[in-house]
From TrEMBL:
It is found in: Mitochondrion matrix. Key enzyme of fatty acid beta-oxidation. Able to isomerize both 3-cis (3Z) and 3-trans (3E) double bonds into the 2-trans (2E) form in a range of enoyl-CoA species, with a preference for (3Z)-enoyl-CoAs over (3E)-enoyl-CoAs. The catalytic efficiency of this enzyme is not affected by the fatty acyl chain length. Its EC number is 5.3.3.8. Pathway: Lipid metabolism; fatty acid beta-oxidation. This is Enoyl-CoA delta isomerase 1, mitochondrial. It is an enzyme of class 5 (isomerase).
Length: 300
C-alpha cells in the first residue's frame, strides 16, 4: 500500500511488457501504415514520440532560461506520466529548445517573497518531478545542450545517461551554496550516486559550476560531443540501452536507486517543512534577492 502523499508511480509494478506494442486495431484498414509519430505540447514542454523506435524526444521550451517554475514542474511531471503510461514508449531523451541553456534550475522567483503555502506547493512539485524522473521505468537520456545549474543539473543527474555539448562555455553543477542555500539531502544523494562522495562533497561545498570538459572528467556527464551531434549520439545511446530486455534493466535500476527514493518518500512532509522554514527566513530571502540582483547587474 502507498503511504499517504506517495506518488502512485512509485507503487506501480514496472511495465515489464513496455516493449510490446499494442496490436493494430481491427478497424485499421489493411495496408494503411500506423502513424509513426505522436506529439503533444503544452506551454513549456514539447514531446514527440516516435512509435517505431519507442523513443520520445522531450524539449524544454520556456525562454529565456527554462527555469523550473511551478507551471514548468507540473507540465514536466504530467508529460513524464503520460509517456510512462504509454505502452509504445520505452525511452525519453530530454533536451532543450532554448539555445545555450538546458535549464537554469529552480525558478528563484518561486522561492522569493511568497507565502508559506506557496513554498510548500512549489516544493511538493519539485519532489514530485524528481520522484517521477528518478524512478522512471523508461530509459532516460539527458542531452545537455547548454548551461545546467542547480535544479537543471538535478534533472540531468536523475537520468540514466548524460551527454553534454562539448562547449566549455556551458557549465553544470549543484551551485546552491553560491546562492546561500543548501542542496537538500536527495539532491546530494543523487549527486553522490553519480560522481561519488569525495567529488560531490567538494563540489557541493564550493557550489561549483563545472565547464563541460571538467564535468566530463569528474564523471558528472558521461560523454561530450559536438553540439550538432548531440541528438544523434543520444539516439544511438538510447538504442544501445533499449537493446536489453526491459524487465532486467528496470529491476537493476530500481535496485540501484530504491534506497535514495525511499528516503525521500519516508520523509516527504518533513522535507517540505524544512524547506518552507529555511526559505522563508529573512536572511535566506535576502541572499536570494541579492543573487537575483547580481544576475540582472551582470546583464547591464
Ligand atoms: N530563476 C528565475 N529567473 C532566472 C533564473 C532562475 N533560476 N536564472 C536566470 N533567470 C532570469 C534572469 O534574472 C534574467 O531575468 P531578466 O531578463 O528579467 O533580467 C533572465 O532569466 C535571463 O538570465 P541571464 O541574463 O542571466 O541569461 P544568460 O543566458 O546570460 O545566463 C544562466 C543564463 C547561466 C542560466 C544564468 O541566468 C544563471 O546563472 N542563472 C542562475 C542559475 C542558478 O543559480 N540557479 C539556481 C536556482 S536554485 C535551484 O535550482 C535549487 C534550489 C534548491 C533549494 C534548496 C533550499 C533549501
Amino acid at each position: 500500500l502507498c503511504p499517504p502523499g506517495v506518488l502512485p508511480l512509485c507503487c506501480r509494478p514496472p511495465a515489464w511488457d513496455r516493449a510490446t506494442r499494442p496490436p493494430p486495431s481491427p478497424l485499421q484498414p489493411p495496408g494503411l501504415p500506423l502513424a509513426p509519430c505522436r506529439s503533444f505540447s503544452n506551454n513549456k514542454i514539447q514531446v514527440e514520440l516516435d512509435e517505431s523506435s519507442g523513443v520520445a524526444m522531450m524539449k524544454f521550451k520556456s525562454p529565456p532560461v527554462n527555469s523550473l517554475s511551478l507551471e514548468f514542474l507540473t507540465e514536466f511531471s504530467i508529460s513524464l506520466e503520460k509517456l510512462e503510461n504509454d505502452r509504445a514508449c520505452r525511452g525519453v531523451i530530454i533536451t532543450s529548445a532554448v539555445p545555450k541553456i538546458f535549464s537554469s534550475g529552480l525558478d528563484i522567483t518561486e522561492m522569493c517573497g511568497k507565502n508559506m503555502e506557496h513554498y510548500a506547493e512549489f516544493w511538493r512539485a519539485v519532489q514530485e518531478l524528481w520522484l517521477r524522473l528518478y524512478s522512471s521505468n523508461m530509459v532516460t537520456v539527458a542531452a545537455v545542450n547548454g548551461s545546467s545549474p542547480a535544479g537543471g543539473c538535478l534533472v540531468a543527474l536523475s537520468c540514466d545517461y548524460r551527454i553534454m555539448a562539448e562547449n566549455p562555455k556551458f557549465s553544470i553543477g549543484l551551485n546552491e551554496a553560491q546562492l546561500g542555500i543548501v542542496a537538500p539531502f536527495w539532491f546530494k544523494d543523487t549527486f553522490v550516486n553519480v560522481v561519488g562522495h569525495r567529488v560531490a562533497e567538494r563540489s557541493l561545498q564550493l557550489g561549483s559550476l563545472h565547464p563541460a570538459p571538467e564535468a566530463h572528467k569528474l564523471g558528472l556527464v558521461d560523454e561530450l560531443v559536438p553540439e550538432e551531434k548531440l541528438l544523434e549520439k543520444a539516439a544511438a545511446v538510447m538504442a544501445q540501452w533499449l537493446a536489453l530486455p526491459d524487465h532486467a534493466r528496470q529491476l537493476t535500476k530500481s535496485m540501484m536507486r530504491k534506497a535514495v527514493l525511499d528516503r525521500l518518500v519516508a520523509h516527504r512532509e518533513e522535507d517540505i517543512k524544512n524547506f518552507t522554514t529555511f526559505i522563508s527566513k529573512e536572511s535566506i530571502q535576502k541572499s536570494l534577492r541579492m543573487y537575483m540582483e547580481m544576475l540582472k547587474k551582470k546583464k547591464g
